[in-house]
Specification:
seven-stranded mixed beta sheet, about 200 residues, about 40% helix, alpha/beta, Rossmann fold, about 25% strand
């Protein structure tokens, strides 16, 4: 990709459904023509992540950098930064990347690192969000796209989508409904972010 392209790098650890939704939107809406933006690479910390094959089938370059090859989070994050920076990214997207990132990493990409979290932040940061929403008697749950800061799940909110919590809901059923919204919200939030760039 030319240096004029706004390169996007997506980090995954698993199946990559949000990554695929973003790549699909980028291709269908022609972000390259619209914004000069393209998905430069999908990087995973797990070689067995199903999303790698999915990304390749969508024509996106993939890389694997196993965190197990490093003796500290700092060492892994430093190597990951070097790999990401080789793509000169305008935006780094966390799409089911199951690693807590070090402050050094987060600060390096300040303002261009985004994540999606399966709750209506600031409610239910961290894990088990759907069960916690049910246990708390919430009438609504949802997902939030936010900028990443060094405080977990606390960065500026870019977009949110809500779904009702239904009587008798299980965490699995609620999660499935929220995921449908994630696949709509995340590509739209990235689109809006790109639209706001010079």
């Amino acid at each position: 990709m030319s240096s004029k392209t706004k390169n996007i790098v997506i980090l995954i650890s698993g199946g990559g459904s949000n990554m695929a939704a973003i790549v699909g939107a980028a291709q269908q809406q022609n972000w390259q023509q619209k914004f000069g933006a393209g998905i430069a690479a999908v990087i995973s910390n797990r070689a067995e992540a199903g999303g790698l094959e999915l990304a390749q089938s969508l024509g996106v370059a993939t890389e694997v950098l196993s965190h197990k090859a490093f003796d500290s989070r700092e060492a892994f994050d430093a190597a990951l930064m070097k790999l990401i920076d080789s793509y000169q990214p305008a935006l780094v997207i966390l799409a089911g990347f199951m690693r807590i990132l070090t402050p050094g990493f987060v600060n390096h990409y300040a303002g261009r690192l985004v994540n999606i979290h399966p709750s209506l932040l600031p409610a239910f940061t961290g894990l088990n969000t759907h069960q916690r929403a049910i246990d708390a008697g919430c009438l609504e749950a949802g997902c939030t796209v936010h900028q990443v800061t060094d405080e977990l799940d606390h960065g500026p909110i870019l977009a949110q989508a809500a779904v009702p919590v239904l009587p008798g809901d299980t965490a699995e059923a609620l999660s499935a409904r929220v995921l449908v919204q994630e696949h709509l919200l995340y590509p739209q939030a990235v689109h809006d972010w790109l639209q706001g760039q010079p």
